[in-house]
Amino acid sequence: MKLPKTLGACVDMIYKMREKRLAAQKIVDEQKHLEETLKNHILSNFNRQDVDKASGKLATCAVTRRIVGDVEDWDTFTAYIAKNDAFDLLQKRVNDTAYRLRLDDNIEVPGVEAREVVSLSITKR
C-alpha cells in the first residue's frame, strides 16, 4: 500500500478505510446473529427430540456441556481465595479502570507497572 505524503491525506485515507471496515463488520455482525438464531433453533430441537447429535450432508452438530462458575457473593468468594491461597480461581489481568483510579489518588499498587497505550481517535468532520 502506498501511503499518502501529507498527514491530512493520511487522515482521510484512514477514515475511508475505517468506514469500509465498519460496513463489512455490520455484515459480519448480521451473519453472526443469524448463526446464533440457527444454533438456538437446533439446540431447541435437540431438546424436543431428545437427541444430542445430528448430521447433514456437510457437517455434524453435537451438544457439548461444561461447567462454569458465576460468582454470587464476591465477599465470600474472595475470603475463600485468601484463606485457601486459591488465586488460581482468578483470571490474571488488571482492571484498567480501578487501576487508573488508584493512580489518580496517588496510590501505588505493588507488582503493577503503568504502561501508556497510544491510539488514534478518528472522527468524521
Strands, helices and their partners?
Blueprint: H1 7-49, E1 53-55, E2 60-62, H2 74-84, H3 96-104
Antiparallel strand pairs: 1-2
Largest β sheet strand count, sense and barrel closure: 2 strands, antiparallel
Strand line-up in the sheet with most strands: 1-2
First-to-last CA distance:
25 Å
Order of helices and strands: HEEHH
Count of alpha/pi helices: 3
> Measured on Cα atoms, how large is the radius of gyration?
24 Å
On the 0 to 100 scale, the average pLDDT is 93
Shape annotation: flat
Secondary structure: number of strands: 2
Residues in β-strands, percent: under 5%
Uncertain regions spanning at least 5 consecutive residues: none
Content-based structural category:
mainly alpha
Helix content: 40-55%
Describe this structure in words.
With 125 residues, this protein is mostly helical. It has a domain at 7-62. It contains 3 helices and 2 strands, in the order αββαα. The chain has helices at residues 7-49, 74-84, 96-104, and strands spanning 53-55, 60-62. A two-stranded antiparallel sheet has the order 1-2. The two termini are 25 Å apart. The mean pLDDT is 93.
Write a compact overview of the structure shown.
This protein is 50% helix and 5% strand.
Give short descriptive properties of this protein.
2 strands, two-stranded antiparallel sheet, 125 residues, mainly alpha
